[in-house]
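As a next step, the fold was encoded as tokens, giving this record:
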Amino acid sequence: MHLDHATIVTPDLDPTRRFFVDVVGLTEKARPPFGVGGYWLYDDGRPVIHLVDSTLPHHSGRTSPRIDHIAFRLDGDDEWQALVARLEAAGVAYQTADVPLSGEVQLFVALAPGVVIEFVTAARNVRRASF
């Protein structure tokens, strides 16, 4: 498992994007077609910063600027299944979602209000019966 990305929710998408591209040196590239605006910024071919628009009034809980979550990538079936088994054994609630057009699956754990940890893997590593 390794750190995959950080998500920043902001009402200032373009200035934030410009900072990370023009000052930090990240590159803006493809982003799946989520239902909310944003950008994915890449380093070494990986999307390491996800920017998400916080100005959509119908998205409760996503209105305050903040670092929204951190995400860990799991590369193998065994690693993913072991994580799910540990979560279930500990009685930790989680939610899953498919990333549009990417072939990836996300798993979200809310540790506390406003504190979210995401785990992401290729869909081929997920046994759907475990959800």
